[in-house]
Amino acid sequence: MEYSKEFKAALSVLTPTEKDKLIFRLLKKDKILSKKLYFELIDTETTDQKRDAMEEYIKEKVESISKHISNQKYFVVLIRKISAEITEHVKVTTDKFGDVTLNLFLINQILESNDKLSRQRFNDIYKLYLYIINKVVKALSLTIKLDEDYWLEIDKYLSELHDKITSNVYLEKLFINNGIDFNWLTIESIPDHFDLIIKDIKSQGFLK
Length: 208
What we know:
Strand content: under 5%
Helix content: over 70%
Order of helices and strands: HHHHHHHHHH
Shape: elongated
Largest sheet: none
Number of strands: 0
Distance between the termini: 33 Å
Number of helices: 10
Radius of gyration: 21 Å
């Protein structure tokens, strides 16, 4: 939304008290903005520290729900909630690196903690596997837009992911059937026109 010069001028003549009231009223309606301002203005934790804390949180949550939740539909619902918390972390801290690594970490934890997946009926876990594939695709798309200085560390997450995927027959086949090349799990092998490839794959009805 663009603001007119007249509107900006009107705001500029508000008293400090009026501006404070307006700011707090707006912050009450926007939780993300409130947390973002808190982080930028007075939070003593750095982005790196918050990312590390998120990894610990993800590990604990996935281990817990993997032990206690056998219904895969409900399992996916809880995983989506964790994913939403990652999204909130990214919006608050503008952590683009964490947007990739935390989501890859989440997937690795799912595959590591839930060792029952490969023994379940394919129909029961199809939605979870498709969710994982789309998460990987998004992470790869974001990775090639990051500075190359980040690639080496991200490659570690991708290497671990590659091993976990290829050790799960159903998941490996679903990756292949949806047109995902395992060579892409090495950053230097991700095509420059990756987004166009994925768009074409989706236009054929895959990844849905």
